[in-house]
């Protein structure tokens, strides 16, 4: 078994797909990784034709996940704020926000260029912003209210509209921001290219509000769409579609807990199901990194 000393695995350390064809990286202590043979052929074949991305999978102990996620987000943020003076980041709901907590500690809280952040939601529940189910409220209370991001750079949905109207409104606004060059878009397909997409995954393998077997998983035209029968409450939500999610420069999938081990196995394991879970359809143009804890990785 080959051991590799690695104290600073960050997004800068790229894993060409070829090298991933024979290994998965597992965290075995605070700074050691071991690689073990794992066939990534199936993973490769699950990717869209156009996909040439890099994929990394890392398994963490307890607090290490939040520490590493903060460094990853900070590195991506610094990259974009220094290169083009803006950083567009999309947040999910759920446990993700808690895993971003180390961004509120030194050095990040003082050194990140928060004024250049532009914050969006990968998906949002159609409830008032003050409602306890609101992803905006979750992120605002847990992160955004504690850092100096200009309020005009925080793009919440219009919570006075029903689901369909809120989705249309969010897409229209994003189109406006693409026109104004706040959000980059791909010349090839016209879809917005967000700098960083931060995703969670449910035990059923859903990402954003794209649920297994739901027709929204197939949406190819819309940037933002809506659902009124979400199996995870609340039922009414808006969500980015896969063409937008998969157009991102960087994507992190943050997945923890034993309850998600089956879905993780189904997406990353050796014998992959022919019917892909939504998480298995996350196949971005750019880099994808899975942040797992031991529970979520327990069946790999
Ligand atoms: O609004 C939502 O419900 C989310 O955006 C959803 O996609 C979430 O990210 C996953 O369900 C994982 O949530 P947990 O990490 O809390 O399990």
Can you offer a commentary on this structure?
The structure is a single chain. The protein is of the alpha/beta class. It has one domain: 3-Layer(aba) Sandwich (Rossmann fold). The chain is 25% helix and 20% strand. It has nine helices and 14 strands. It has helices spanning 17-20, 41-45, 64-84, 96-99, 108-111, 135-142, 163-179, 242-245, 261-268, and strands at 3-5, 24-27, 32-36, 55-60, 87-91, 117-121, 123-125, 184-185, 192-193, 196-200, 224-227, 237-240, 250-255, 287-293. The strands form four sheets. It has a six-stranded parallel sheet. Strands 1-3-2 form a three-stranded antiparallel sheet, with no helix packed on it. A three-stranded antiparallel sheet has the order 7-12-11. The model is unreliable at 1-52 (pLDDT under 50). The site of 6-phosphogluconic acid has 15 residues, from strand 7. It holds the Pfam family Glucosamine_iso.
What's the alpha carbon Rg, rounded to whole Å?
A: 18 Å
| CATH architecture identity | 3-Layer(aba) Sandwich
Strand-residue proportion:
15-25%
Mean pLDDT: 85
Figure out the total of helices. 9
Helix-residue proportion? 25-40%
CATH topology grouping: Rossmann fold
Structural class: alpha/beta
Number of strands: 14
Quaternary structure: single chain
Instruction: Give the uncertain stretches in residue-range form.
Output: 1-52
Shape designation: globular
- CATH class, named Alpha Beta
Q: Which compounds are bound in this model?
A: 6-phosphogluconic acid
The structural domain count equals 1
Through-space gap between termini = 17 Å
Strand order of the largest sheet: 4-14-13-10-5-6
* N-to-C order of helices and strands: EHEEHEHEHHEEHHEEEEEHEHE
Protein name: Probable 6-phosphogluconolactonase
Pathway: Carbohydrate degradation; pentose phosphate pathway; D-ribulose 5-phosphate from D-glucose 6-phosphate (oxidative stage): step 2/3
GO molecular function, one term: 6-phosphogluconolactonase activity
Family: Belongs to the glucosamine/galactosamine-6-phosphate isomerase family. 6-phosphogluconolactonase subfamily.
């Amino acid at each position: 078994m080959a051991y590799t000393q690695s104290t600073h695995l960050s997004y800068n350390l790229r894993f060409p797909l070829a090298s991933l064809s024979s290994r998965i990286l597992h965290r075995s202590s605070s700074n050691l990784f071991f690689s073990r043979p794992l066939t990534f052929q199936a993973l490769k074949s699950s990717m869209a034709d156009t996909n040439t991305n890099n994929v990394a999978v890392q398994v963490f102990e307890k607090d290490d996940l939040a520490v590493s996620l903060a460094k990853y987000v900070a590195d991506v943020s610094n990259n974009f704020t220094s290169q083009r003076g803006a950083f567009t980041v999309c947040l999910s709901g759920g446990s993700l926000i808690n895993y971003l907590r180390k961004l509120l500690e030194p050095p990040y809280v003082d050194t990140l260029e928060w004024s250049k952040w532009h914050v969006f939601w990968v998906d949002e529940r159609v409830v008032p912003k003050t409602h306890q189910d609101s992803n905006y409220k979750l992120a605002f209370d847990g992160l955004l209210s504690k850092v100096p991001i200009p309020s005009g750079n925080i793009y919440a949905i219009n919570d006075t509209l029903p689901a369909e109207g809120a989705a249309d409104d969010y897409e229209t606004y994003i189109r406006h921001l693409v026109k104004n060059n706040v959000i980059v878009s791909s010349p090839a397909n016209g879809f917005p290219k967000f700098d960083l997409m931060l995703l969670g995954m449910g035990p059923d393998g859903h990402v954003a509000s794209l649920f297994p077997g739901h027709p929204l998983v197939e949406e190819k035209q819309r940037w933002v769409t809506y659902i009124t029968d979400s199996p995870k409450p609340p039922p009414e939500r808006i969500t980015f579609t896969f063409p937008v999610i998969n157009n991102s420069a960087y994507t992190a999938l943050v997945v923890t807990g034993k309850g998600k081990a089956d879905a993780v196995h189904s997406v990353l394991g050796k014998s992959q199901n022919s019917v892909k879970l939504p998480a298995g359809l996350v196949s971005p143009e750019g880099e994808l990194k899975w942040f797992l804890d031991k529970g979520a990785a327990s069946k790999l």
